[in-house]
Amino acid sequence: MARALELLAARPGFRGGEAGRAIEDAGQWVLTVRFDSVDAYRRALGPFEVREHVHPLLAEADTTTEATYESLVTVTPGAAPVHHPSLLS
Question: In this predicted structure, what is the pLDDT of residue 27?
């Protein structure tokens, strides 16, 4: 998940993103990203390495459940990823 976030962070138009884990189910994750526009987001998904790491995550997305998530990795443009300690640890 962190690698997918780092790859997206390197793309033009990236504004920020987070990877988080559900506090009720440690196997359930969320990836949230912000881009300048829908077009920037779509272009970000194009490079091979992004397709290799991000597309499989998107294909596994479960949109049928609700959960509360904790942020574990935060990325902003021009900065190194920040890893947050888990509340579950």
Answer: 86
Considering its fold, how many domains does the chain have in total?
1
CATH number of domain containing 28: 3.30.70
Question: Is 76 part of a structural domain of the chain?
Answer: yes
Sequence-distant (≥ 6) Cβ neighbours of residue 1 within 8 angstroms:
19, 29, 31, 57, 73
Structure tokens at 57: 């995550």
Type of residue at 46: G
DSSP designation for 89: -
Q: What percent of the chain has pLDDT over 90?
A: 42
